[in-house]
Amino acid sequence: MQNSRALILWAIGLGLISFGLYWQTMHFGAVNLDDPWYLVSNPQVNQGLSWQAVKHAFGPEQATYWHPMATLSAMTDFSLFGPRPGGHHFSSALIHAATAALFFLALHAMTRQLWSSLLAALLFAVHPINVEAVCWLTQRKTILTGLFCAAALLSYAHYARKPGFLRYLWVFALTGFCVMSKPSAAPLPVALLLIDYWPLQRFSQSSPVRLILEKIPLLCLSLGTMIMTYITGLPYGGLNLVQGVPVMLRLENAFVATIVYLGKFFYSMGPTVYVPFPDALPFWKPVLAILALAAMTALALRFCKKAPQLIVGLLWFLIFLTPVIGVIQAGVFPAWADRYAYLPYWGLYIAAAWTLFSLKKTGFGLEKLASALAAVWICLLGFSAWTQAGAWANDVALFSRAVRNVPNSLMLRHNYGVALMGSGRYAEAVDQYEKALALISPEDGPGYPAYLRFSLGNAHLGNKDAASAELEYKAAIALAPRFFQAYNNLGLVYWGRGLENKAQACFNKALEINPNFQDAKNNLEDMGRSGEAPN
C-alpha cells in the first residue's frame, strides 16, 4: 500500500511538472490555422454537448475525417468554458499532464523499475516536440490519443499479469477510444505485440499464435477506424495514394523525414507548424537515410538480448510513424510535423531511459556522468518547451517564429500576413504577401495566387496606398474573373477617389456574380444608388 501511494505521488509530481510548463497557455487565444474552421466557427462543435451533438460526433459527417472522441472533447470544452480559448487550453494542458502520469504508471506496471519509468515519462512531459500538439487547439485529437494510449498500456499491463475477460474488455475499450481520437493511433495493437516481447516477456510464456490471436479484436477496431476515415474523407478529397506528389518522392521523403524526427529528439528548433513537401530530393539524402536506419536497426538487433529496449523502442517509433510519414496523404500534407511525433517518440523515451540506467551495470562509473548529462538535458528540454510554448500566444508571435524556421512555406507567409493585417501592421503585411507570391508555383493554379493578390491589395489599402491596391485587385480579377470580393474592394478604391460610376460598376459586377453579397449591397446603399443594383 505504501509503495502504491509513493507511485501515485510520483505520478502527481510528473503531472504538476507537465502542467506547469503549459500553465501559460491559459492566457493564449486560438490561432488562425484550422482553429476557426475546426472549433470556433464550427456550429456542430461550438453549441456544446447535447444528444444531437453526440450523434453528430459518431456520424460520418466530420471535418475531414472521423475522430468522435476528439469532437466530443471539444464539445465538452464549449459546454464548460464557452468560446473562451483559455478554458480549452486548460483542458489540453491537463490532458497532457494526465498522460505523463499514466505513461509513468503504465511503464512501472510493466517493468517494476521506478527510475527508468520516471525518466521516460519525464522526457515525454517536458520534450518541446509536444508543444505543437498541446498548444494548438485543433490538435486535441493528438493529445487524446496519448491519454487513451497510456491508459490502454496500463490496462494491458494488468491484463498480461492476470488475464481475464473483464480486464481484456478494459483494454478493448481504451484501444477503441484511442483510435477514435485520431486514426493515426491504429498501430496500437501491433505495438502491444512489441510489449509482449519486452518488457512483459510473454513470448516465453505463451505461443506467438495465441498472442497474435489475442490482438485480432483490437486490430478489427483499428481496421474499422481506417474504413470510417476513408469514408468520411471522401467529400474532402479522401486519402491520396497515387495522385499529386509522386509515390517515389513520398517514399524518399519518408526515409529522410524519419531521420529528421530522430534528430529532433535531441534538438527541436521551435514552431514550424507547416513544412512544405519538397518538389524533389537530392539522390544522396534518401540513400544516406536508408543506410542510417539500416545501421540503427542492425545495432538494435545485435543487442536485442542484452538491451531489448533498443529494438522495442526503435520499432515502436517506426510503427507509429508509419501512418503519418506521408506515403498516404490527405489534404495539404507536410514533409514532417512536430505533432506527428507525439506517440512515436514514446519508443525513443523508453530506449533512452532504460539505456541510461543500464549504464550502472557496466562498472566503469559512467552512470554518474550519464545521470548528470540527463539532468542537464531534461532542464534544457523543459526550458525549450516553455519558451516555444510562448510562441503560440497569438498569431503574430506564432507565425513570425514559424517563418524564421521555415522561410520557404507559402502557407506560413500568407498566415503571417493575415496576422499582421489583424494587428494593423499593414506595411509588414505587404512584405509577407509579396514573399508569399514569390513562392507560388504553377501547380498552385490560379485560385491561390488570386487570393494572395486580393490580400496584398487589402494590405496596400490599409497602408493608404490606393494605387497599388487597385493594381492588385485587378490582378486578382484577371486570375479569377468571378472573384466578387475583389470587384467589391476595387469599387471601394474607385469610390475613395471620387470615381462613383466606376465604383458602382464594380459593386454591380460583384452582385451579378453573387446576388447575396451583402457588402456590395451596403456600398451601393451608402452611395445612394441601391435602386440601381442588378436584379
TrEMBL record:
Keyword Membrane: yes
Repeat region (TPR), residues: 484-517
Keyword terms of this UniProt record: Membrane, Repeat, TPR repeat, Transmembrane, Transmembrane helix
Pfam short name (any one): TPR_1
SUPFAM superfamilies xref list: TPR-like (SSF48452)
Entries under Gene3D superfamilies matching the protein: Tetratricopeptide repeat domain (1.25.40.10)
Entry-linked InterPro entries: O-mannosyl-transferase_TMTC, TPR-like_helical_dom_sf, TPR_rpt
Lineage: superkingdom: Bacteria
Residues spanning the membrane: 7-25, 89-107, 114-131, 143-161, 168-195, 215-242, 254-277, 283-303, 310-333, 339-357, 369-386
Name listed for the protein in its UniProt record: TPR repeat-containing protein
Protein source organism: Desulfatibacillum aliphaticivorans
Taxonomic lineage from the root: Bacteria, Pseudomonadati, Thermodesulfobacteriota, Desulfobacteria, Desulfobacterales
